[in-house]
Amino acid sequence: MQQGTLMRKVKSKSWKKQRYFKLQEDCMTIWYQSKRTGKTESAFSISDVETVREGHQSEVLQSVAEEFPPERCFTIVFYGRRGNLDLVAGSAEEAQCWVQGLRQLIEPRSFPLTFALVSRTWIRDWFQKADKNKDGRMNFKEVQRLLKMMNVDMNEDHALRLFQDADKSESGTLEGEEFVLFYKALTQREEVLSLFQEFSEDGKKLTLLELVDFLREEQLEEEGTEELAMELIDKYEPSETARARHVLSADGFLMYLCSLEGSIFNPQHRALWQDMNQPLCHYFISSSHNTYLIEDQIRGHSSIEGYIRALKRGCRCLEVDCWDGPNGEPMVYHGHTFTSKIPFREVVSTLGKYAFKVRHPSPGAGGHGWSLVGEDTCAEGSWSCWPPAVQDPRGQGLWRCWVAQGASLSLTPQELKHKILLKGKKIGRLEDTLDGPGDEAPDVSDDDNGAEAEEERRRAKVRGTQQDSVLQKDKETLAQALSDCVIYCKNVPFRGFHEARSHSRPSEISSLSEAKARKLIRDEGNQFVRHNAWQLTRIYPSGMRTDSSNYSPQEMWNVGCQIVALNFQTAGMEMDLCDGLFSQNGCCGYVLKPPFMRDEETLFNPSDPSSWAGPGPITLTIQVISGQQLPKVANSKEGAIIDPLVRVEIYGVPADQAHQETKYIENNGFNPRWDETLQFQLHVPELALIRFVVEDYDKTSRNDFVGQFTLPFANIKPGYRHIHLLSKDGTSIPPSSLFVHIRITE
């Protein structure tokens, strides 16, 4: 990695400033300064970097593509909603040096980080922040300042005692390993040590049998506990001697509890663990609204970054709103507003690069009407720009197989793996793409007789006339080439559940506003669940949400709506629920609905769980024990220390919605102890999401957000568990965590 490299920082076609970039000695921080003034502009930590992209893989660098070749360009992408850093190196060799060096630095940080790695990084970061004179040593005054920075309000005498114990050289300063000793004394986990000693006969180690007892009695591990115990010792015991004797020390025990295996989230459910051979309508599908927007709905910026971020987050249903552009070139933007525009071809190219970085990727794409010129251009683009994953109806294979079976086959995520479905309007029936025009009027059974049959024939004739009119209108405004691209998710208006059941097909989809969906939930909850057992439904935000705010997706999931579109650019509880639900099953963007929501004759109604013969309520008991190294509130005053509390929120059917919170701990964000027990009754646990929120208590104003973690009830591991907190943007903030004890009883 070169240091002090002169590169161009690019913000737009007209804004290109030269800056010196340098990797600091800790190999964890990069700063850059102005070439003209020599003043340091900014710095960022390697831990903030998500990935590095080579070439013209951002709109900014694409705008200067004629000026700078791709081999000199690269983009540093940060976690969360922080803007990218677009750079142009002086040569291709220089660019490669930075790209490869950054990738090597960020690659070992695959989540979840090991406890040891997090600790080393955390210690080094804090030492450098507190070492004001940069002499590599820390006196007691600097240690006191450090404690404030770390959210610790400690008695001065106690702090001095810890300092003197760690100062082995008696120099009056701490350096190197002395600071590590001080840090370890500071982070002593009394609650974990007490638990360790409860199962350890001599208080110094856990034998293999003692560890097995702990795993069975407290962690409720049922199968292969001896093998699991051996694996944990081999993986987390730092002492070679202890590993050889098959025992676990207190340090190894803590490392296990802070690991993936000690997390509240069942590690087996992080992988692809659900059946992917069910019809699409049997899954909740991660979906975004106006994916191209990264700000508000009226004047916001449209960007391919919206698609990249959504896809990397596991989103499987994207929205592409296309409108006429100059020279017939389709543009993507929010129509009839002042949002900026992106060429359609750039969006298609981006989807080709990023759509299949998760498993079973079958993202849908919505569209608005272009003129025939715009549509023909887009349809042409659909074959020349779209990757091969777009299912060409003119080809052989999946589409012909589906039509040959009379459109009765419901396609599955497994069958659609590495395929892209286009959702939109269509001229005529789906079958007509191959078989020629057909009559969409419903058949009337010969068994019908009397007045009811005659009335049904009259209604069918009226519907047929209306459909002929609609079909003619479609043909006037919709290009045939574009219509042919829609082979499965044909957009149809929703005219009621009875009408849909009588005349719609599983291959069709209706879109409903959040207000319309709420009315149906309130008035016809059970019918809504039954409808979603055989056909797809998409829900979208109210047009009044011009600030890109979100509605709660939970009430839509409660009736089985599959495509619940949210504004991914807006952080908050709603996106926490979305991220929480889809954090399972390999983060593939598909989550199988419970069996009672896949039954077309189900009696389930979320408003009245008693109408459904479920297994009965269960009791969830959560003991909130402690917190570790909680972050400070953003933009807080220097020296301010948080007063943390924990709130547990339950989202599910109305009868299960609840929240409880602990008391707040004054002036301790470093290692607060609550030791409080919260209890909840869940009537439909299959639909419940549990959200843990840490806030900074404020008696005069609204509490400030500190961190959160959300997961489905079905993914909870009982026992003593750590909850690794996430930021408001949904990114990890190691080593911040909660330590809890979970019990589930019927």
UniProtKB/TrEMBL annotation:
Ranges for domain PI-PLC Y-box: 482-598
Sequence ranges assigned to domain EF-hand in this UniProt record: 118-153, 154-189
Keywords of the record: Calcium, Cytoplasm, Endoplasmic reticulum, Hydrolase, Lipid degradation, Lipid metabolism, Membrane, Metal-binding, Nucleus, Repeat, Transducer
Any Gene Ontology biological process: lipid catabolic process
GO molecular function terms noted in the UniProt entry: calcium ion binding; phosphatidylinositol-4,5-bisphosphate phospholipase C activity
Domain of life where this protein originates: Eukaryota
Cofactor annotation: Ca(2+)
Domain PH: 1-107
One GO cellular component term noted in the UniProt record for this chain: endoplasmic reticulum
Signal peptide bounds: none
Classification via InterPro entries: C2_dom (IPR000008), C2_domain_sf (IPR035892), EF-hand-dom_pair (IPR011992), EF_Hand_1_Ca_BS (IPR018247), EF_hand_dom (IPR002048), PH-like_dom_sf (IPR011993), PH_domain (IPR001849), PI-PLC_fam (IPR001192)
Subcellular location: Cytoplasm; Endoplasmic reticulum; Membrane; Nucleus
Membrane topology: Peripheral membrane protein
EC number in record: 3.1.4.11
Region (Disordered): 432-469
Listed name of the protein: Phosphoinositide phospholipase C
Biased composition, class Acidic residues, residue ranges: 433-454
Catalysed transformations (reactions): a 1,2-diacyl-sn-glycero-3-phospho-(1D-myo-inositol-4,5-bisphosphate) + H2O = 1D-myo-inositol 1,4,5-trisphosphate + a 1,2-diacyl-sn-glycerol + H(+); a 1,2-diacyl-sn-glycero-3-phospho-(1D-myo-inositol) + H2O = 1D-myo-inositol 1-phosphate + a 1,2-diacyl-sn-glycerol + H(+)
Keyword Lyase included in the entry's annotation: no
